[in-house]
């Protein structure tokens, strides 16, 4: 802000800050704003018609608030007016300007989705992370999680989202999509994201989550038999990878009380590495509140997931005290 407002002076006397404000301060410091703005600029509105467009960085900040806190277009506009932490993150001084309205955010969000800018930001930040030495190579953890979608037909079209599907997990039927993630086995940072309907088996997408230089792949028991699949055997690189897949616990051989249970020990070592992917899903679903799909269609939700995964990688690095190398 150009000058300190009365609200800033009043809030500076607080005894403590909220977790929300601490989170926004962390993200504000670690996000490479200039790089992200440059990626969006070729797709942004020219401003030759209608009213002049808002600044790219300001709209990007508003869009990120919507993604991080699972808010609607109108909800994030109201939240910025209501929350000091949001207003501070946006850099808005009400003496000089007002919050962009919900319609302006709607147009910006659609531009992000149609141009697939979420994927560009995700790949750009992963490139910077790799150049900074934090993204390791040689091993990948593959896993998938179901993200529910509204299953009701009480809408104008009287039908569910045709790109979503139902599947049975355990004794429960779920309707929605499946998020498939490839996570670096060394750092726990996500490097690849794919989405499918919920009824697509995890193993069908596994080959798309493996990097060209991976030598080891970890996965849960849902990926058993992956080395026998045709797309794996027909590929020279994929067929040479060592697949360390967890076996079903109930099918492990039993040993006597005096013997060392090497099978359980090996499975525990696999799980200790594979569990890193669960931290990603925890951030996406619990911290960012993306436990339910908010849009119709897989493409829009994939764009949102790319933004959230890029943010999750940055958050993990920030919490570990890492700093990105500036180009």
List the helices and strands and how they pair.
Blueprint lengths: L5 H6 L7 H12 L2 H8 L15 H13 L4 H10 L1 H7 L11 H13 L2 H15 L7 E10 L16 E5 L2 E13 L5 E8 L18 E4 L10 H4 L2 H4 L2 E4 L16 H13 L1 H12 L10 H22 L8
Parallel strand pairs: 1-5, 5-6
Antiparallel strand pairs: 1-3, 2-3, 3-4
Descriptive overview:
With 327 residues, the protein is α/β, with parallel strands linked by helices. The protein folds into two domains: 6-115, no CATH class; 136-295, Nucleotidyltransferase, domain 5 (2-Layer Sandwich), CATH 3.30.420. It has helices at residues 6-11, 19-30, 33-40, 56-68, 73-82, 84-90, 102-114, 117-131, 230-233, 236-239, 262-274, 276-287, 298-319, and strands spanning 139-148, 165-169, 172-184, 190-197, 216-219, 242-245. Strands 1, 2, 3, 4, 5 and 6 form a six-stranded mixed β-sheet that branches. Strand 2 and strand 3 (172-184) form a beta hairpin. Helix 3 (33-40) runs antiparallel to helix 8 and helix 4 (56-68) crosses helix 7 (102-114). It is globular. The relative contact order is 0.14. The mean pLDDT is 89.
Shape: globular
Helix content: 40-55%
Question: Alpha-carbon distance between the termini?
Answer: 26 Å
Unreliable stretches (pLDDT < 50, length at least 5) are none
Which CATH architecture of the largest domain is right? 2-Layer Sandwich
SS class: alpha/beta
**Average pLDDT value?**
89
Number of helices: 13
CATH structural class of the largest domain: Alpha Beta
Strand percentage? 5-15%
What is the fold-level CATH name, i.e. the topology of the largest domain?
Nucleotidyltransferase, domain 5
Q: Total number of β-strand segments?
A: 6
Radius of gyration: 22 Å
Return the domain count. 2
């Amino acid at each position: 802000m150009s000058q300190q407002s009365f609200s800033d002076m009043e809030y500076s006397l607080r005894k403590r800050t909220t977790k929300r404000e601490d989170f926004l301060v962390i993200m504000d410091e670690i996000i490479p704003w200039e790089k992200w703005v440059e990626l969006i600029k070729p797709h942004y509105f020219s401003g030759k018609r209608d009213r002049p467009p808002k600044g790219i960085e300001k709209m990007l900040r508003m869009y990120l608030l919507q993604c991080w806190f699972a808010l609607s277009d109108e909800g994030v506009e109201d939240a910025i007016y209501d929350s000091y932490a949001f207003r501070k993150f946006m850099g808005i001084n009400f003496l000089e300007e007002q919050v962009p309205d919900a319609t302006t955010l709607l147009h910006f969000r659609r531009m992000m989705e149609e141009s697939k800018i979420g994927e560009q930001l995700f790949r750009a930040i992963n490139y910077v992370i790799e150049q900074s030495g934090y993204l390791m190579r040689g091993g990948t953890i593959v896993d998938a999680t179901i993200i529910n979608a509204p299953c009701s037909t009480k809408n104008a079209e009287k039908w569910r989202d045709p790109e979503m599907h139902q599947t049975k997990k355990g004794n429960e039927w779920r309707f929605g999509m499946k998020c498939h993630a490839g996570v670096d086995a060394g750092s726990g940072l996500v490097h690849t994201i794919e989405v499918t309907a919920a009824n697509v088996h995890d193993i069908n997408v596994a080959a798309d989550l493996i990097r060209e230089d991976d030598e080891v792949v970890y996965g849960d028991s849902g990926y058993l038999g992956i080395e026998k699949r045709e797309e794996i055997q027909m590929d020279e690189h994929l067929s040479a990878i060592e697949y360390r897949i967890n076996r079903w616990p109930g099918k492990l051989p039993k040993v006597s009380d005096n013997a060392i249970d090497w099978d359980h020990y090996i499975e525990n070592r696999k799980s200790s590495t594979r569990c890193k992917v669960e931290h990603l899903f925890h951030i996406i679903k619990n911290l960012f509140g993306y436990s339910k799909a908010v849009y119709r269609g897989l493409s829009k939700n994939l764009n949102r997931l790319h933004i959230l995964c890029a943010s999750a990688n940055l958050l993990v690095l920030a919490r570990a005290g890492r700093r990105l190398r500036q180009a």
